[in-house]
């Protein structure tokens, strides 16, 4: 899921959390996701009060987790627990990554099995 938040809001958040932004970035959270900054992104989420910024950061977190699981196949339990507490507040983000019609690993994202567990809680 890519948020429908306007580009000005994305640009403002990008400056605030020090990630790239260009207006022609089609999949902004995918293009700036960074598994090595997951803890930092979680901290930004915790400190942020603006709902639209929080939604964008949640997307950035989920894309970063997906990349980490694709590359490393694992993440620390602490990071996943913190991420779960963020994502539970963004059901549309979770819903997208659940991939309900996917039955095999080649039909889903690396994060999908974890997200499915989260969605059941």
Keywords:
121 residues, mainly alpha, 7 helices
Kindly report the average pLDDT value: 92
Return the structural class: mainly alpha
What is the H/E string?
A: HHHHHHH
Low-confidence stretches: none
Q: Give the terminus-to-terminus CA distance.
A: 20 Å
In DSSP terms, counting alpha (H) and pi (I) runs of 4 or more, how many helices? 7
Largest sheet: none
Number of strands: 0
Task: Give a structural overview.
The chain has 121 residues and is mainly α. Helix content is 63%, strand content 0%. It is built from seven helices and no strands. It has helices at 7-17, 28-32, 38-47, 51-72, 77-87, 91-98, 112-120. The radius of gyration is 14 Å and the shape is globular. The mean pLDDT is 92.
Short description:
Helix content is 63%, strand content 0%.
Summarize the SSE layout with pairings.
Layout: H1 7-17, H2 28-32, H3 38-47, H4 51-72, H5 77-87, H6 91-98, H7 112-120
Helix pairs in contact: 3-4, 3-5, 4-5, 6-7
